[in-house]
Each structure stands twice: as C-alpha cells, then as structure tokens.
Design brief:
0% strand, 79% helix, Na-dicarboxylate_symporter, symporter activity, 447 residues, Proton glutamate symport protein, transport
Amino acid sequence: MFITLAYVVLFLVCCYGLFRIDQKSSSLSKPVFIALFTGGLIGLSLHLVDSDTSKQIIDWFDIVGNGYVNLLKLVAIPLIFISILSAINKLENSAGMGKMSLTIVGCMLFLVMTAGFIGLLTAKTLGLDASAFSHLQSTLTDDDVTRTAAVSLPKLITSLIPTNLFLDLTGARSVSVIGIVIFTLLAGVALLKVKKEAPEEGKKLSAGINAMQIWVMKMVRIVIALTPYGVMALMAKVFSTYRLEQFASLLGFITACYLAVLMMFIVHGLLLLLAGKNPVQYYKTVWPALTFAFVSRSSAASIPLAITAQEKCGVPNTVANIAASFGSSMGQNGCAGIYPAIMVAMIAPTVGIDPLSLPFLAAMLPAIALGSIGVAGVGGGGTFAALIVLSTLNFPVALVGIFIAIEPVVDMARTALNVNGSMMSGVLTSRLLDREDAQSQERVSLN
C-alpha cells in the first residue's frame, strides 16, 4: 500500500510540474513531449515492483488516462455535429458539399492504397516470409472469419447510412461517427433551404447554432487542456504493460510494421511539400494529436485533437470535421493499409506469386481500399482489415491469428498513422479545393 501511495503522490507531483510548464508554454507540444517522456520513465520503473502492486498503481493512473479518453469521446460527437452545422450555416448554398465530401473520401482511398504499397515494399525488402512463423499457433477463431465472410462493397456503403440518429449518438454501431456526419450534412442542407425560404426562422436558427458552437468549443478546449496529464498516465500504462519476452519471436514483423509506418509518415511529408506546405511545421502542429493517438490507440477519441490540429494548419472547419470523422472509421493508413499489406507480402511468395508484379498490385490495391471501408463496416481494427484483404485475394487467413497477441504493440504506431492520414486528407482536400477555386476565378476573369 505504501508503494502505491508513493507512486500516486509522484504522479500528482509530475502533474503539478506539467501544469507549471503548460502555463509558461504557448502550445501543447512541449508539455505533451515532457509528459510522454515522464510517463515512459514511470511505466518502466513499475517493472521493479511486483505485478499486483503494479496493477493497483495503474488502476489509479487509469482515473486520469481513461478518464481523459472518455472525456474526449464525450465531446467528440457534439463537436462534430455543431462544427459542421455551423460551417454550413456560413455558406450561401449547398452546391459544394458533395464535391468536398467526395474529395475527402478520394484522398483517403488514395492514401490508404499508397500505404498498402509501402507496407508491401517494406516486407518484401526485409525478406519476411510467412513460413518462418508457421511454428506459432494462430488464435484466430471461426467467429472472426465468419464476421468478414459476407462483406461486400454495396453492403459496406449501405451500412454507413444512418437509420436512427439516437442509436448512433450512443455509439452503438462501429460506423456511428460517420452516420452522425451524414445526418449533420443533411441537416445543414435543410438549414440553408430554411434560410432561403423562411428568412425570419432561418435567422433564429442561425443565431442559435452560432451560440451553441461557442459553448461547445469552450467545452472542447477545457478537455484538450488536459492532454499532457492524460498522455502521461496512458504512457505509464503502456510501458508498464508490455515486456520484451512477450513478442521477441515476432520482432521481425513488429520491425517491419514500424519501419513501414515511418516510411508512410515520410510520404505524407513529401505530399505536403507538393501541396506547398512545410512538413516540419505541420508535424510540429499535429504532434499532440499524434502523441495521443499513439498512447490511446483510439482514432475516435483523437477526433477533437485532429480537428483542432487541422484548423491550426489552415484547413477550413467543415473540411477538418468531416476528414477527422470519416478518418476514424475508414481509409486508415495503418490498420487497413500497411498491416494487411505486410501479411500479403509474407504469404504471396509461399503460393508462388510475386507481390510486386503489376497484375497482382492491380488486384491488391483495390482490395486494400475495400478493406479500409470494411474496417468501419465490420469493426475490430487491423485484424479484420487483414481478414477482408486476404479473403478477397483468396489467401489463407491463419497468419492473421498469429499476430493478434502482439497487435496492441503494433496498434500504437498504426493508430498514430491512421489519425495522420485523416488529417492529411483534410489538408490535401483544402489545398485541392483552393486550387480549383483559384482556377475558376481565373477563367471567369479571362472571360
């Protein structure tokens, strides 16, 4: 009990130190980085105490860590709803909404297929082979396979369309966030029509929406200010939970995953350069969102941070909200791109297929795109994305079960990349729409 109390006091002292640093810092990046480092040290030190005491200490830390994650999930839905509705409220017409949404989805599918190619290339370069893991036991169940057996693109798309708003507000479906976004877009278009056809009622609705946005944003900023403390608690848990011997036999696969994720972050940086953005400044701005995604392993909980980070990068509010919301359940670069592609690269040589041949890439990359939507339709993250891709290619799926044991270790990097992919979709969409608007204005001036 004394050791537990000592660690709780130590944690509170560290929280006070972070508070003092946060007061002097102009951004979240510095206190979040310090929290990441401090939490890691606390987590490593917990290996020196017995397992029961360590678990008891982490239970106390979870009040801050899991509490912060829960608060972010709590404000995510009101933020998405009111921010998109408020942005539409400022529009004159609804003509650009469809184009904007399709551009965001197009960017997401392009990025996830690029991530798939990077994962394939990385595994091929490292020489990973599925036969090297054949001695390990698969933990895949028949139920896991059954849940992906009936997946088809029409069913996946249909599953995105909401039928009960109140059901989605509870998060009951794996695609609840997307369902709320679709409902908000519908409500926004209706709002524009009310403002046009009934101006007096439209003014009242508009004023109410503006007031509600100010209120919700105050709530969101209060929660985001807690980021350093939540990150420190979550990081302590991560470093206290995993031991090297748990995944030593799968170190090659883990290395390939992390290396591929790093390569995809570099690709994102190159795309930023092509879009006229400074990659260093971008990553500095989005650092708190990426850090939280890494330690929390939750794309949905990262939505408020991802929206705020995009807005700081100059992305319009509506684009930022839709990109972050859609990105929590589709087009995930890590879970649906890199993870299944590495498994494909490991299995392909065992069945006599060159994974880098053009005919195979032409079949695999669309399967990756399908799987990225399938993650939303089926649920279960990278495991089910891999099942969808392997099943689509008629590859054996037993390998997926071997890596379930170490999935949490890989999932931290995957989630950070997922969130960055959603933010990149917002940045690229904003740039593409700006360029298109500029070209339209130029054509008008020439005429």
